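Late entry, 5-amino-5-deoxy-1-O-phosphono-D-mannitol complex.
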Amino acid sequence: MCGIIGFAGREQAAPILLDGLARMEYRGYDSAGIAVRSETKGLQVKKAKGRLQVLSDLTHGGADLEGTLGIGHTRWATHGEPNDINAHPHVSENGQIALVHNGIIENYLEIKEQLQRHGVKFTSDTDSEVVAQLLEFHYNECHNMLEAVGRVLRRIEGSYAFGIICSDYPNALIAARKDSPLILGYGENGNYIASDVTAVIKYTRDVVYMEDGEIAVVTPESIDVFDSEMNPLEKKHSQVDWDVSAAEKGGYAHFMFKEIMEQPEAIRKTVSPRIRDGRVVLDDVSMTVDYVKNISRIFIIACGSSYHVGMVSKYNWERLLRRPVQVDLASEFRYSDPLVDENTLVIVISQSGETLDTMAAMREAKRRGARTLAIVNVVGSSIAREADDVLYTWAGPEIAVATTKAYSTQLVLMDLIGLYLADLLGTVEKSEYDAILTEMQLLPEKMSHFLEHFEDVQYFASRYFNHNSIFFIGRNLDYAMGLEGSLKLKEISYIHSEAYASGELKHGTISLIEPGTLVVALGTYAALFDKAMSNVVEVKARGAEVLAVTTESFKEKMEKTADSTIVVPDTHPILQPSLGVVPLQLFAYYVALQRGCDIDKPRNLAKSVTVE
Ligand code: M6R
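Prediction complete; structure with ligand written out below:
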């Protein structure tokens, strides 16, 4: 979703702003802009619809804009269509104040009407411009930018991260946040603000995570942070511990492919530190046996692929824990008057840790007395900081919009937590516990082995890429895995695709199967393999072309019926989706490649969805 960068320093700002925006391209956007202040030229603003390259060309890589203080933005349209005018930065009517904004101002219409009554003229359709104009209004009253920002923040409702510059302040930019991420970066040649660390990692690893309600004044020499009452705050610094190369393609054509290939290592990093002497150790979680025994209900709440991890975990956890586990979409949970109390454990899963729906659902669960445990990839993100407990997936930065390694690490981490809880409850046999842990430690090796033959999947993608509608079918864990395979395919290849529980086909969907329809049949779940095969026979009988994914154990049987078969290594049944999902990711990737799609930045999508 939208990305903010700001720089106050001793170098030309524009190239740094463009570079920071390029590093946040993965978040998703449809227009971009920068504003730079110089002593001689005042505020200079350039904005352009489309890819960042358009803006870069327009400004000759930033060389046209002189000045060492500036802000930049990539916009993902919410209020008003994507065009040059609605792009950020927005400038107040007198041209003195420029502002970039992430989030949504809910009461903007009311404020706009009020300002219009004072004769203020608006040029864009955005809620963000209203804030720029309101700022000018208050600045004209008090002639102090910090005071004016305070007045604006007290007046607006909604979510925001702001970066603000004013031509009267040659060295300072002002930042503020509420419900939208913003970090402060301390560099040698100046200081930064950014929506995420990827934008500034090239320049500094020394960062501070801003909290809701905080305001920062950033100059080349210092950063001062204040609370909403303008009291100065001492902030804790964090050191970013991953390398800049982790957020670069490193010779791969796409981040998505690189991240698929990184999965074995990401799983190893997530699992290894949490197994000691044959036991699961979750150092960061402080649940007592008494607490766990009193859990009456477990909710897993997430969006998109993270929700699909929840679907797999529901099957696995109910099997291991013998407790009811409900998986809810975060956007549904929060408005469903959920049956949550202090004996409810709520697990929230989020790669970014910034997904607004998930965050709001977590707050709702906490408000109702539940204990919350967050599974998050981005260290220091909002969800991680607000949850009662947090466990990180050590996947490293995930840049492609389509998640792969974050999904895989979430999956294994959820399996680990399931085992940990089952052990506390005494609901898992020791032999089963040991078998799962042993197999979990073998997953990276087995996955690497499969990935060595990625061309096999490429071959099937080249055979099937021109289908316009594809069905994924499977039972139990295979159904949950199919949901992810189908989402992966549709988000990056734009092929219509649906995932169904195989047994449900005959209740309606089978009418869509006609000669030549491609069905991806998932048959990796041993306990229901024969049942799954009956459904494969059913769709074959109606003319479907079947591409199957199965395990070494069932290869022979599957090959007798399916048109094409992809075989993944066997593992413990609970862990099978960790291996089964890999060919589905590769299939989506190669189909999208064949169709010439923009794989890392699919249309209309954003990496972190910070609006409702
Ligand atoms: O950052 P989160 O895990 O909270 O994001 C949730 C979804 O937006 C995300 O999984 C989305 O579905 C991905 N693009 C799927 O590849």
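The mean pLDDT is 94. Will revisit in the morning.
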